[in-house]
Design goal:
Shape: globular
Number of strands: 0
Distance between the termini: 63 Å
Radius of gyration: 25 Å
Helix content: 55-70%
Oligomer: single chain
Number of helices: 9
Order of helices and strands: HHHHHHHHH
Strand content: under 5%
Amino acid sequence: MSDHNQASVIPSWLTPDTTAWSGTNEGFSDNTTYPPLDSFPPLPPLLVNPWDIVLCSSGTLIACENALVVLVIWQNPALRAPMFLLIGSLALADLLAGLGLVLHFTFAYLLRSDSAQLLTVGLVVASFSASVFSLLAITIDRYLSLYYALTYNSERTAAFTYTMLVLLWGLSLCLGLLPVTGINCLAEESTCSVVRPLTKNNVAVLSVSFLLLFGLMLQLYVQICKIVMRHAHQIALQHHFLSASPHYVTTRKGVSTLAIILGTFAACWMPFTVYSLIADYTYPPLYTYATLVPATYNSVINPVIYAFRNQEIQKALWLVCCGCIPASMAHRARTPSDV
């Protein structure tokens, strides 16, 4: 069988677009006689899509950064509270997502196999789903720690945390298996979404699920802000002057931190979510990459927000890196801005 009859594998997240990188001579006229095109040697194809290099680089950074968080939590027995288990779940999900991006790039340009492409896309879908679900679980945990402050450290809280972890990873695994088990567009390109080989229906389910989760997180953070501000107001009244209370100042910083967390999450994921709902495989690839790349950056930012800002994890990192803990950090008290 000749090379022209073999099905080519597109090393990209996107459906093949023969006009994506080419221009057109429409509107130009030239009376000069040129030799036939067959007499020229064929131009070499574009070896690597630059956008795929960006995604692979992001995946490498994500994997390295979150591997450090997973290692610290795994090696430190003191980090076994429900909060740290959820942070570890988030770091593990982002670590797998980074590895998935790197493996997809490697298999797409080296192995060039549809089966490998399905496996890596399934891994990326499952990992990013687990990352978003872990963010929701952390939000729920923070709300419960404030609403049930007196009984938060009970055994029932630990059991609830384990239940959330089992559910979020089980659901994420199911979402990742969809393209692997046959729900993909490899057989029929017209059903492809903006991310090949996911179907339009598959991406629609993921996007709607994200919007629902974002709405739930927004509601929970509003309730968290109300609880924190109410507690701060009650404490400040005991000092007889609201604005002079140090606790009120740090509480305002805590509320600002919550706004930054939610705003960062929305800024990273919302463009791709909305675009994937309204677009399909016929849209220019540039738009897909321009919205997909910022979504991956959320996994770069997550360790900074949820792990490296935590005092206990900071101490564990210092122990791992230099075997000591700075005196200023050892005696620092936790404030509402650390929420």
